[in-house]
Task: structure prediction
Amino acid sequence: MSLLDSLQVDLNARREQGLYRSHRVVDGPQGVQLRVDGRELLSFCSNDYLGLANDPRLAEALREATRRYGVGSGAAHLISGHSSAHHALEEELAGFVGAERALLFSTGYMANLGVLGALLGRGDTLLQDKLNHASLIDGAALSGARLRRYPHNDMDALQRQLEGAQGWVLIASDGVFSMDGDLAPLQTLAQIAANADCALMIDDAHGFGVLGEQGRGSVDAAGLNFDQVPVYMATLGKALGVAGAFVAGSEALIETLIQQARSYVYTTAMPPALAEATRASLRIAAEEQWRREQLQALVQRFRAGAQAIGLQLMASATPIQPILLGDAQTALRWSERLLERGILVTAIRPPTVPQGSARLRVTFSAQHSEAQVDRLLEALQSLAEEEAA
Ligand SMILES: *Cc1c(COP(=O)(O)O)cnc(C)c1O
Result:
């Protein structure tokens, strides 16, 4: 059998294990009501936490910017693709999080690959939480550094793994864990990094815009600064509702990334109009505190209701609220039953999460109403009753 003949065999096996993935076609804008395959669904699975992805002010900023900048950026940042829109956004992001500098990347995935590859090489050591995002794991492999993964949020294990670490040492952790919704123990991480004289990187894809003063993120919420967390990365396609990512830190960090981050150097700059839309989004995200308050109210309402039904939640206070179901088939069945009721919640299965911890990943947006949360709870209640019968 040749490589290509073997593909169908592997695909069939994947389907039998309930691990087959496929995409749905969404017609129309992102929002809590989605048009999917001609049906209106109530969605609880986007990362558009602040509900800005379809905000008319962002759309207008984008339109206006295309008049000034056109569409494509035309080249990489270091050739001729770095526009005044990118430049202004970088300065505003740096100012917002309180860093000397910030650097835009086209996606968060690329930012993580770029940072790890630029900072570390063979002979260095990277310590990572086992539940870190795939892009940090992939970035570790690309960097060539020795990777040690400590059990989730286990600071004693991290401390042990630090002993005998070779070369330059970097600890990297998600700020908010994307599949569990819980927070990294940032103060302890910062303390451990300081004591061991090594660097700390936080990936705040799910904290930026949602946590901290004006949405400055999980590091701000933990009361830490850039001396304690020198490498801060966050994405612009989740709470900010646009696309892309940035890394913030010292002048030397950013200049090093400009010289050495391959996913920065060897790729086309994001369209400048997207940078302008992101500038509009950043202003709104910072000013409209009600969005973060609404999220908190929805999360509390959901947790109280889900606990009353007897569902197994995780220790999360963020808009990521997983319901643990165990095996992949069960998670898939629940997701399908909710879909029959017009509610879209995705089943998250291995290898995205560890074996035996398949779940429904419920996420909230500031656009959800309390009535919509109640509709989800009612559907979950009737499903739980069906499963018990
Ligand atoms: C989504 C995500 C990324 C990747 O960001 P993209 O901009 O979607 O490529 C990186 N890290 C974490 C923790 C994420 O959740």
User: Anything to note?
Assistant: The longest helix spans residues 289-309.
